């Protein structure tokens, strides 16, 4: 297994980007859906779901924090 030293958000975006581009994040082989057809033959579905969950959770918490700090204007009715 390859160990990649990155910030948590960078790792998520790297996995997401690779899978979207149908390139295995581990071996660089081509992919069909979430299954690597290259050297490692790894199924990336679990990592995809985790990365998507982590990305959504961080964007939601970031939005809530910015609202608490007054950086996001409240919605107003027209």
Report a brief summary of the structure.
This protein is mainly α and 78 residues long. The chain is 47% helix and 5% strand.
Question: Can you describe what's shown?
Answer:
The chain is mainly α and 78 residues long. The chain has a domain at 8-58. 47% of the residues lie in helices and 5% in strands. It has two helices and two strands; from the N terminus they run H-E-E-H. It has helices at 8-20, 45-68; strands at 31-32, 35-36. A two-stranded antiparallel ribbon has the order 1-2. A hairpin with a 2-residue loop joins strand 1 and strand 2. Helix 1 (8-20) packs across helix 2. The chain is elongated and about 35 Å long. The model is unreliable at 3-7 (pLDDT under 50).
How many strands appear in the DSSP assignment?
2
Shape descriptor reads elongated
Strand order of the largest sheet: 1-2
Our estimate of the beta-strand percent is 5-15%
Residue windows where pLDDT falls under 50 for at least 5 positions: 3-7
How many helices does DSSP assign?
A: 2
- SSE-based structural type: mainly alpha
Mean of the pLDDT scores?
A: 76
Helix content: 40-55%
Q: What's the helix-strand series?
A: HEEH
Q: How many strands, what sense, and barrel or not for the largest sheet? A: 2 strands, antiparallel
Radius of gyration: 17 Å
Q: How far is it from the N-terminal to the C-terminal residue, by CA?
A: 55 Å
């Amino acid at each position: 297994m390859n160990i990649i030293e990155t910030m948590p958000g960078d790792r998520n975006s790297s996995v997401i980007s690779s899978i979207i581009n149908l390139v295995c994040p581990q071996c660089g082989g081509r992919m069909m859906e979430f299954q690597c057809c290259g050297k490692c033959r790894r199924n990336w579905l679990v990592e995809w779901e985790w990365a998507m969950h982590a990305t959504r959770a961080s964007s939601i918490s970031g939005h809530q924090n910015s609202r608490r700090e007054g950086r996001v204007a409240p919605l107003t009715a027209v």
